[in-house]
Amino acid sequence: MATFKIGDYVEVCHRPDLKWVDWDNDTHTTFCRKVGIIEDIEEDEYHPDDRTEDLIKVVCYFDEHELGAHVAAGNYFQMFKTRHLIKSSAYAIKRLDFAKEAAQETNHYEDFTKNKRDEIFKYIFGIKENRNSVREISNEEYNAELDDWEMKTPVMDLDYDPYL
């Protein structure tokens, strides 16, 4: 069993300890798998020689999405027994912060590539604005275009019948 001191980094056990009478499913379970710092150690008054029965105050940081919409982000504490804690290091918190930063950066690049892909699809498959606009032409231009078309089209002799 590890000995804990104030200021140590610890990780709360991965599963709820429902055998412990004081374990609360709402509050204690939210701390499972969280890394925090020991802020205070209270010795058990009934077992002063047994260090496994000490109550340890652990402070953990929670984001907005981890506790729900009605609770603000910040540091929260809870009391645990020594059997609920695993000794950890400060790097564990930094590792989690690095993972969050990497996830945010990945989300940023995914949004950027999604927008660029959508622009490409709109350019290739979408309706272009130039297709919807109709150019107004005057009667002289229309007649000039018809004259040009008639000059390019061969005139058919309707009196000529090749089968006669």
Can you lay out the helices and strands and say which pair or pack?
Layout: E1 9-12, H1 27-30, E2 35-42, E3 55-62, H2 64-67, E4 74-81, E5 85-87, H3 90-125, H4 129-132, H5 139-152
Antiparallel strand pairs: 1-2, 1-5, 2-3, 3-4
The percent range for strand residues is 15-25%
What's the structural domain tally? 2
Largest sheet: 5 strands, antiparallel
For this structure, what is the CATH class of the largest domain?
Mainly Beta
**Mean pLDDT value:** 78
- The parts where pLDDT drops under 50 for at least 5 residues are none
CATH architecture of the largest domain: Roll
Q: Provide the helix percentage.
A: 25-40%
Strand order of the largest sheet: 4-3-2-1-5
Give the C-alpha Rg.
38 Å
Shape: rod-shaped
Number of strands: 5
Could you list some keywords that capture this structure?
alpha+beta, 164 residues, 5 helices, SH3 type barrels, five-stranded antiparallel beta sheet, single chain, 2 domains, 5 strands
